[in-house]
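Anyone up for a design puzzle?
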């Protein structure tokens, strides 16, 4: 599949202006208006993409209520008389492959989706907002992240975090090889309250201020930074994945529904097997114990499941953030690129980092095949986004939060000759649903 990417990020220009108040007196809660003006980030001015019928959805972050509308011929959408509050604004349009070719003269194998997104837009009483949003086409690839089970299961009755996994899927119509596919756990600012970092306007860390960061690169927009980096082994064609098939990558490839023996000889079991899953048939697992001085008892090596290559790790096992504050990427570098030699940097702290402070791999986004932004399930716990609109314009979450047994699962777009094709618009808000209990190999 041809990869399409415009390397311009979403740009928004909120403009505030006062509403007229009759008699100088305001009574009650006054409705407010939001105007969205849409355009495209284009590398060429030789053609014009349609701004009519762009779908725009606004979501009140406090009430979760939504309103949707479509743009007019000029690319303008107006929401009038809405309650004051904080809103997520998402815009999307899909141009069919045939129409895209007619307009641009460029052949693409699949329809092209353009997105724009602005999160946590405050619309105050007595103020209207006019917003410019620029639509960008994201990267599209043959591999997609299908399912992320980060929440884990109940602390006392379930498996805690031991049963976490990620599922990657071949969304193409040809055999792909998982060999040398990298899985990165993207890290960044975990809350808005921490104040010892240099930050960008969106609140995310300003990595350009990291010690020894080169001045001639765009450290924030062209890269992401991982705290774990794993690779599927193989010689190039060791692990074929058929079209419409996936691979499950487990933290610990055991049947978590039944008792099993931990690395220290203790029995590990759950009180309620219905809250957890069987990962004994996972395709790969992350095994850390061989290079830790104090490994977890639950980090048992299932000799029937191949181990991932661990380039970078954090903590005592491959533990995904249960609250949903990490992002995830998959990528392949190819050629003679030696990923383990890529540079690593400290957090951009306002004070000099210590000599033994943790460093994070700098991952060039040009190699990323798919990215999924995860967020906490409640609006007040949200953190600054790590990905721009061309990689993931939105985010996904599980409604019940940490230790709920829930996973996020990519939606089915269509079935073609028996092959399930998953939705991939580079907006996880639209692309993902959830399972009440994580289901390796399942579809939604």
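Challenge accepted. My sequence:
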């Amino acid at each position: 599949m041809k990869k399409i990417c415009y390397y311009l990020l979403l740009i928004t220009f909120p403009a505030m202006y006062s509403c007229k108040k009759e008699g100088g007196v305001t009574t009650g809660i006054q409705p407010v208006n939001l105007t969205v003006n849409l355009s495209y980030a284009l590398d060429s001015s030789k053609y014009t993409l349609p701004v009519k019928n762009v779908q725009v959805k606004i979501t009140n972050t406090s009430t979760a209520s939504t309103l949707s509308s479509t743009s007019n011929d000029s690319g303008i959408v107006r929401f009038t008389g809405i309650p004051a509050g904080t809103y997520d604004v998402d815009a999307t349009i899909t141009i069919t492959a045939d129409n895209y070719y007619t307009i641009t003269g460029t052949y693409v194998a699949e329809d092209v989706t353009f997105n724009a997104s602005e999160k946590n837009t405050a619309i105050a009483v007595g103020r209207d907002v006019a917003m410019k949003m620029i639509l960008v086409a994201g990267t599209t690839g043959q591999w997609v992240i299908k399912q992320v089970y980060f929440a884990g299961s109940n602390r006392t009755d379930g498996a805690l975090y031991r049963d976490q996994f990620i599922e990657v899927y071949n969304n193409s119509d040809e055999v792909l090889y998982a060999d040398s596919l990298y899985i990165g756990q993207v890290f960044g600012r975990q809350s808005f309250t921490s104040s010892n970092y240099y930050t960008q306007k969106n609140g995310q860390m300003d990595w350009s201020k990291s010690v020894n960061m080169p001045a001639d690169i765009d450290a924030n927009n062209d890269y992401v930074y991982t705290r774990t980096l794993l690779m599927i082994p193989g010689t190039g064609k060791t692990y074929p994945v058929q079209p419409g098939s996936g691979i499950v990558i487990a933290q610990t490839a055991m049947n978590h529904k039944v008792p099993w023996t931990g690395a220290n000889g203790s029995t590990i079991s759950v009180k309620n097997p219905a809250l957890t899953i069987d990962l004994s048939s996972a395709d790969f697992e992350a095994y850390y114990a061989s290079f830790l001085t104090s490994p977890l008892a639950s980090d048992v090596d299932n000799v029937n499941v191949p181990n991932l290559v661990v380039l970078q790790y954090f903590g005592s096992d491959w533990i995904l953030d249960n609250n949903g504050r990490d992002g995830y990427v998959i990528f392949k570098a190819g050629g003679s690129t030696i990923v383990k030699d890529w540079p690593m940097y400290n957090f951009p702290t306002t004070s000099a980092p210590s000599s033994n402070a943790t460093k994070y791999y700098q991952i060039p986004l040009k190699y990323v095949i798919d990215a999924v932004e995860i967020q906490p399930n409640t609006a007040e716990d949200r953190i600054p986004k790590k990905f721009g609109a061309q990689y993931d314009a939105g985010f996904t979450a599980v409604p019940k939060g940490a230790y709920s047994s829930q996973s996020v699962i990519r939606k089915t777009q269509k079935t073609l000759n028996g092959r399930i094709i998953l939705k991939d618009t580079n907006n996880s808000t639209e692309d993902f649903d959830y399972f009440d209990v994580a289901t390796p190999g399942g579809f939604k």
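A detail worth pointing out: The first helix runs from residue 97 to 104.
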